[in-house]
Amino acid sequence: MRPLFLLAALFSTALFAQSSGDAVANAHVVYANRHFEQTGVSAAPDGRLFVNYPRWSDRYLNAVIVQTPDGSQEPYPDLEWNRWDGKPQTAANHFVCVQAVLVDQANTLWVVDPAAPLLTSPVPNGPKLVRIDLLTNRVLQVFPMEQVALPDSYLNDIRIDNKRNFAYLTDSGHGGIIVLDIGTGESWRKLDGNPSVLGNPTIPVVVHGFELKQPNGKPALFNSDSIELSKDGNTLYYKAINSDTLWSVPTALLRDRSADPSPAVKAAATNLFPTDGLWMDSKNRLYLSDVEHNAVRRLNTTGQLELIFESPALDWSDTFSEDASGNIYISASRLDEQPRYHDGYSTRHGRPYLIFRLDGLDPH
What is the pLDDT of residue 13? Predict the structure, then answer.
């Protein structure tokens, strides 16, 4: 691994990080399916595991499922939410194309629906956040996001500040940060056009020795995607996949609708690699999905970059979660195998989509 330089935005002093040796995690496959491409995973305190599937192809069934501790699975919160009929008139109260799920500290599940099937423009009435009570398994609120979703938007990942009652999302299509005041239901965009939210076309994404390219031959480009919130809620971290820099911004400037946060954006870490997911544990150590090497790496507060887990089966390490016992979860979405990057043909060949549990990484 290349060295990376950490700035005070992430740690109290500037550090020069070095990578360490062998992987340290004890990994177990806790979920597998051979049919439907997955992205997000989130673990609930009661042992349930929530998984989502974006509508990226005609091979599609459910948007969100729950797996109980005994291994049984069913659509969540019910079958009706998972059976959109393809009409804009019904998009507001059905899952259209779900990208992420997140269990927050209030024991509610947040479902991010960019409503952009097949990665097209968002369906009218479709972009939304759905908040579900995990005790009753009923939808508590639907937050329409059409007012902040642009024609090329793709709502990607989310973090919740339960103390301040705000949500932060990345837009990996247009590029930008979206802020939701949960109390009022109002939302707004920040950092549109800022270089920190845009992918760098000179930084290719190479998986299994193959550079991902669009059908037009240009490099595949992903804007602001990875996101994480500091434990005190004061700082938001984010990163484009095609970027070697992790950025940070004070959340106070995001919550203030009239403030321009651009002057306060700082590089938290540089000379990184393409990442899709971020996770900060209770000890302020940052986990990064290394999509080019089918790996998980951890950036410690000492500046050490550790290899936590690496496996060919972790193809396109995507989304993190953590359970009550401090086990870290990571999904494999196999995004690099999509037909759009291979002249219209999938290279998956029946290999399963997996979710791994990495045991005992964050004992509380």
Answer: 31
